[in-house]
Amino acid sequence: MMKNKENSLSYDNNGNLIEKLSYHISTSIGIFFYNLGLRVARNPWKVIAICWLSVLIFSTGFLNFYQEKDPFKLWVPDNIDFHKHTKFIVKNYKEGLKTESVLIISKNNVLTEEVFSKLRKITREINNIKIEGEHGGVKKLNDLCFKVPLITIYSKLMDSMGSNNKHKRSNDDTTEDLGEMINNNPDDFIKKMFDPSFKITTKQYCSIVSKLKLGCMHENILDMWNAETSNLTKHDITEKIDTTYINRVTGHEMNFTTLLGDVERNANGHVISAKSLLTNFNLHLNFSEINLERTGNAAGTESWTTVNVMRFEEKFLILMGKLKREFETEDIKIYYAAGRSYGDISEKTLFQDISKVIFGTFLMTIYMVFILSKYSWVELRLQLTSFGVMNIGMAYISGCGLASTFMFYTPVHSSLFFIILGLGVDDIFVIMAAYRKITSINNIEMSLEEKIARTMQKAGASITITSLTDIIAFLVGSFTILPSLRSFCIFGALCILMTYIYVVTFFVAVLTIDEKRVADKRNGLVPCIKHEEKTPSCEPKLMWNFLHFFHGKIILTKFGKIAVILSVVAITGFSIHRLLLIKQKFDPMWFIPSKTYFYEYVMEHREYYPNRGFEAGVYMNNLNYTADLSKIILMAKEIENQSEILSNVQAWPIKFQDFVLSLYEIDLMTYRLSDAEWKDYLSKFLFSVDGGKFQANFRFTDKLICGQPASDILISSITYTYFRFDDRDEFIPARASIENIVKSLNFSQNDVFVWGRVFANWYTDEIIDSEIYRNISLALIGVFICTTVMIVNIQVCAYIFTCVLLSLVSIGGFMQFWGLTLDIVTSIGLQLSVGLCIDYAAHIGHTFLTISEPDGNKRALLTVEEIGGAVLEGGGSTMLAIMLLATSDAYTFRTFFKIFIIVVIFGLYFGVVFLPVILSIFKPKPYEAYGSHHESNNENELVLLDKDSKNIKIIKQNDKISNSSCDKTEC
Predict the structure, then answer these.
(1) CA–CA gap between residue 23 and residue 934 (Å, rounded)
(2) Roughly what angle, to the nearest 10 degrees, separates helices 416-439 and 824-849?
(3) pLDDT digits (tens, 9 = 90+) for 409-468
(4) Can you list the domains of the chain with their CATH numbers?
(5) Which end of the chain has fewer CB atoms surrounding its CB within 10 Å, N or C?
């Protein structure tokens, strides 16, 4: 072939070693895909059969499928002691409780007979709920509630003391009439009768204790009375609140004002009104009966529970929905929640909008048909599009099946189909753009197999680069310490790998078959119908014409380039400013739609009870209590002093110190008890009225028996409640303050630890931002290395890397502008965004290197005309698929919608607008500039391989492509 020296490029044909390597790698990749395309095109049905068989083989991995439902194993870092401490507590405490709540709010005052009458009816209805027990029989609230000893049976106490109702004090031998004591001050009588300091023999005292019955421990303001009352006046109620400190049903101490919200007091400090009234019904949990495989939900958001509790809560929610409709008035509003409410609603919300995802996929399919088809029945690409979507479904099934052999599945993985759909469609558009380019060379005689081979030669490298970089981005993310994100990234990497494999095999085989249908002029909808129509000589190319005008007349002009660069500077500056303001924050209530009963309850509860926050505690194990008792008391006092962050501190060491001091005149801060004294005094303390409530804070090797010394302690605790915190700047210091108190007393690490269920969220929130930055940074490094190896052009790789980096900065900044924060959901979205941003820029960068043209502007324009349409169409398909998620109630889907809208906008802007401008300015050398086989000499030359894949032909497109007089078309 003759060289046209006048148009010869000015590139140095020798080049350096890296440049020559770049050329040879590009050529080798082209040869590989040429041969692959040729083999697939010659054996399409065999390839399809092999692909379907591979799907079946990989699907066997589902035999090992396991969906993790334990929220701790999903969302909590697995390299912390929280898991070990949780197992230890569950093993030793063996029981807990779940709370069902009713909240009544009145604009005027809840301390009225009208409100109390409604509460009595609600309580009565809840007490009468019946369920079928897991192991048979009918269960009611009294069978399922958390029970405590009842100490209000005065008559039986007096009988146990003697028929004369007299009791002699050992100190002064005086007598006191117990009946008079009961009548004058019953609360004081109860306190004295159940305290060893009231001088009775141990045998008498323990005989009383042994006869105590168990009753339900609820928090109900009606328990100020020991019998159901009616026709109460406001004065009756407020007076009772000010004078009652004992629960008349259980006999235990209780401050009933904690059940009131927005309390108003008079000058003397007495309660005169309140705006809200809270009632809690506590259900018993036997930890040995918890099985999250049965009671957990698909979203992984269900807390610890049992089958019986779940069944009761289901009936409770149905009942309260009915009572809410019946009892609410304009002034009185009723809100309610069960222990299962969060899990139920978050699961329902996560999956209720799957229909929108499916419909979005349907819209994307229609969009693909429109993009891939020409305006004729023969070239209607409905079947090709359908099999293209099937290709992505096959990849999802194969990838998930392969990953299931060694990794658990999580509910977040359902979004994987969405991301591989976007990536797979993008690959399909690239292949079809290359095929159209090849078939546009009208007077070059090529068989269908040759066309397919040359299509893969042209598109294979671009698809490989984007797929490989996506896979690396996900694999890097799998090194996270968050179990759910690690699993997601592994599943994602394998799904993308399978998408890539099936696109270059299965889809190409289907394309070959569909092209045979087109050649045979068969209907694209009903293939058995043949048409006599001629193949259209022209087809509308609106996208090509748009890009030709937009880039050629605007973007790639001198003023256009200046405008683009200035806009990038402005966007980046704004984004950096916003990125510096972004916060790490996550509220579990974001998963709950605002129109649900549970969301309304939580919002009202937060408003009226701001100090009812998160229960936690300090847990002690394997301590030498006699040696460390003074330290334990100091620790308890320090914890009690944290009144700015804690409430409801249950510090048994302080009460025990007072007990021993008052009864035995021993100061535990200066005197070390013997082991026998310690066990004897502790047993008496835990059966006293002041110490009895602390039995729940201890677990012993043997059962605690009244009148006998306590056995060795397995675990003990000091519990408290954190105030409600808005973000980690509050809860991290709050948790650390308690941990520092523990550390300052030099307990060994395994002996004393701080634990709370809420820590599961706090630990994740504490490290999620550093995990995001680390994963994205490693992904960027991995992507840069990958593109460098594949493209072997440092200059272009640097430009691609810059575009991806600027895209991510813009995504982060506009995330903050749109109200998003850094959390587990946005971390997944950002991980996915790396792959999408790479795709847009890598396609442009790689295509630019395959075009030989000395003029930078023309070369950039040719690049955009050749691949820009496919990139924009891929971005458009992604936007179309997610549009319906904008109205979703699910936080996950709403967040993905916002992130992916931002990703597509800025990914396309930096990849299709900014990158061509940079490439046109700096003009990196094309691959062909370093080849020894030829020297390119025409702005529209197309490099093709001979059939033997050894020699290179140069086809002058402007000479070989027939011209057409059609306006705004490409023939």
Answers:
(1) 12
(2) 10
(3) 887 777 788 778 878 888 898 899 889 888 876 556 788 999 999 999 988 888 888 888
(4) 24-69+356-587+764-927 (1.20.1640.10), 93-148+216-295+306-339 (no CATH), 154-211 (no CATH), 620-754 (no CATH)
(5) N
